[in-house]
């Protein structure tokens, strides 16, 4: 989750998104969409258009997606859910560094995916910009 300006890319297919949401909810992920998600993200101070927030005590977390979520926003947050699931839904506590490392790990994978699937140049550029910004955020990442 990183706000780097205006949204880019295509809106994610709403019917497909609803199928994904239903699957996530069956697996215990709480999904907040639309204006409610926009208000929640604003209240959290997250300048992003979407976010996945692990529960501090462990277990599946909460996925927030603003209205008309884009392909880039949905796929990135799904990747973060996968990263959290791979830990066995471990407790996040106040582990900000782990969240930053998840972002740093996700960006190159997203760039590769976007290139393979012929996403728009604007989407690929946004992912590259995000990656460079996350490099600045993660201690020791540039070494």
Describe the structure.
There is one protein chain. By secondary structure, the protein is mostly helical. It is built from 5 helices and 3 strands; from the N terminus they run H-E-H-E-E-H-H-H. The chain has helices spanning about 15-25, 35-45, 70-85, 95-115, 120-135, and strands spanning about 30-35, 50-55, 60-65. It has a 3-stranded mixed beta sheet with strand order 1-3-2, sandwiched between helices. The model has no long low-confidence stretch (mean pLDDT about 90).
- Give the distance, in angstroms, between the N- and C-terminal Cα atoms: 23 Å
Biggest sheet: strands side by side, in what order? 1-3-2
Total number of strands: 3
Element order: H for helix, E for strand = HEHEEHHH
Q: Count of helices?
A: 5
Which structural class is indicated by helix and strand composition?
mainly alpha
Helix content: 40-55%
Largest sheet: 3 strands, mixed
**Radius of gyration from the alpha-carbon trace, in angstroms:** 14 Å
Weakly predicted, low-confidence segments:
none
**Global geometry:** globular
Strand content: 5-15%
Mean pLDDT: 89
Give the secondary structure arrangement, pairings included.
Blueprint: H1 14-26, E1 30-33, H2 34-44, E2 50-53, E3 62-65, H3 71-86, H4 96-116, H5 121-137
Parallel strand pairs: 1-3
Antiparallel strand pairs: 2-3
Helix pairs in contact: 3-4, 4-5
């Amino acid at each position: 989750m990183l706000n780097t300006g205006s949204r880019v890319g295509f809106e994610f297919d709403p019917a497909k998104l609803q199928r994904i949401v239903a699957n996530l909810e069956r697996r215990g992920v709480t999904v907040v969409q639309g204006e409610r998600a926009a208000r929640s993200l604003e209240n959290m101070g997250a300048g992003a258009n979407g976010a996945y927030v692990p529960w501090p005590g462990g277990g599946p977390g909460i996925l927030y997606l603003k209205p008309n979520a884009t392909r880039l926003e949905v796929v990135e947050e799904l990747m973060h859910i996968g990263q959290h699931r791979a830990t066995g839904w471990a407790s996040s506590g106040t582990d900000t560094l782990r969240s930053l490392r998840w972002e740093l790990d996700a960006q190159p994978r997203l760039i590769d995916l976007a290139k393979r699937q012929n996403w728009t140049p604007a989407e690929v550029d946004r992912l590259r910009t995000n990656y460079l910004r996350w490099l600045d955020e993660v201690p020791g990442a540039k070494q």
